[in-house]
Design a protein that fits this description.
The chain is an alpha/beta fold and 263 residues long. The protein is 42% helix and 14% strand. The longest helix is centred in the middle third of the chain and has 29 residues.
């Protein structure tokens, strides 16, 4: 075998929500493995700043994109092809998770969560998948789901949990459709991951900083590995799914939660 299984030299990837947290961790790992990476983020200025921080064999570019926009798929395909010549890998990482009990949730807020987490993911996958079929060289689609795809973690995440349950089933359905074209579609279910935006959904809930810290500590205490995850814990698994190491795997869900679902 002439290539190492995790070598992404010559491959081109799109990472949505790639300017921070899990997305940036994934972008870093892909660049280190040799991939050219387009960081696509709602905050285009931050995406360009973070792109300039990455060093590796692969090239890096950035673009501004709202994954809920009807032309988002076309935009990221065009940007990736213009910069790198192809689209071989898509990591659907963009997501939001406002915490609001269902009895208090407004319809617009529900639609926004489903729009970002599920509808945007599906139609980005459609656009990139169509390009992969046209290229005729296969491809890798990696969806960031959640342990909440399988089991609710707390009250207030009905919209988020519904969207992530949808991500799991979309992953399976699209994997079946794309398999004849040599495109694999898999998902990762992160547990609690400490990122820059971890506390953001709770900041409008009326909780104090101390209460938020206590909630995080309580959650971490239930994890068998006794710690919150880090973005790189997910990034390394995303690299596996984006590489030839996972060539005979499609429609799968890899749970990366420190054992949280065991409890």
């Amino acid at each position: 075998m002439s290539r190492q299984p995790f070598d992404l030299d010559g491959r081109s990837a799109v990472v949505t929500g790639g300017a921070m947290g899990i997305g940036f961790g994934i972008a870093r790992r892909l660049v280190e493995a040799g991939a050219n990476v387009l960081i696509a983020d709602l905050d285009g200025e931050l995406a360009r700043t973070r792109a300039a921080e990455l060093e590796g064999p692969g090239k890096v570019a950035a673009c501004t994109v709202d994954v809920t926009a009807k032309d988002a798929g076309r935009l990221v395909v065009d940007e990736c092809v213009t910069n790198f010549g192809s689209v071989d890998i898509l990591v659907n990482n963009a997501g939001i998770y406002p915490v609001t009990p269902m009895l208090e949730l407004e319809r617009d807020a529900w639609d926004r969560v489903l729009g970002v987490n599920l509808t945007g993911l599906a139609f980005l996958s459609k656009a990139v998948g169509a390009r992969m079929v046209e290229q005729g060289t296969g491809g890798k689609i990696v969806n960031i789901a959640s342990i909440d795809s399988l089991h609710p973690s707390m009250v207030g995440l009905a919209a988020y949990d519904s969207s992530k349950g949808g991500v799991l089933m979309f992953t399976k359905a699209f994997a079946l459709e794309m398999a004849p074209h040599g495109v694999t579609v898999n998902a990762i279910a992160p547990g609690g991951i400490g990122t820059e935006g971890t506390a953001a959904p709770l900041q409008g809930s009326g909780m104090s900083d101390e209460e938020m810290q206590a909630m995080t500590a309580q959650f971490a205490a239930r994890i068998p590995l006794r710690r919150m995850g880090e973005p790189d814990d997910i990034a390394k698994v995303a690299l596996f799914l984006a590489s030839s190491a996972s060539d005979y795997m499609t429609g799968g869900l890899l749970v990366v939660d420190g054992g949280a679902l065991l409890t």
